[in-house]
Amino acid sequence: MDLCFLRYSNSNIFSSLSQMPALVMLNTQSITVDVQYNQFVVDSIYNAANLSASAPSGEKKFAAKNVTYTWLQSIYVLVQCTPDLSKYDFNRCLNLTLSYLPFCCNNTIGGRVIFPSCNLRFENSSITTKLPSWQCHHHHYPSQMFPSLHLQAQ
């Protein structure tokens, strides 16, 4: 489970959709080819995205869902975007992450697509069991806690 997401840049990153660099990971366990399963995963991600996108402006844009595929198999889905994105950019970002799935994650039991502005994840085991709840904490730290790094050319 990813407990932290840190982003920094030498340019303004707020309220702007960023999809590069992209990180794509897949669970190496595969399943037999199942077109219905692949479509179910995509539909589940879209449903979670719609739930998350409905959050008011400035609120966390996050959804985690457990959906049942068969009586023996569940799929756990997590979608998340930075709260500064507009609803339009949020949907656009998640659609871009979804466009990576056919190339990386068809017929696998899990995968992740991570952009600087949003990410999605699906697995066949619980994504959120390691934490009792998801909470987002915003802290302002004094600049003295993070001293500037001064490098000298040699």
Automatic annotation (TrEMBL):
<dbReference type="InterPro" id="IPR002902">
    <property type="entry name" value="GNK2"/>
</dbReference>
<feature type="domain" description="Gnk2-homologous">
    <location>
        <begin position="19"/>
        <end position="127"/>
    </location>
</feature>
<keyword id="KW-0732">Signal</keyword>
<protein>
    <recommendedName>
        <fullName>Gnk2-homologous domain-containing protein</fullName>
    </recommendedName>
</protein>
<keyword id="KW-0677">Repeat</keyword>
<dbReference type="InterPro" id="IPR038408">
    <property type="entry name" value="GNK2_sf"/>
</dbReference>
<dbReference type="Pfam" id="PF01657">
    <property type="entry name" value="Stress-antifung"/>
</dbReference>
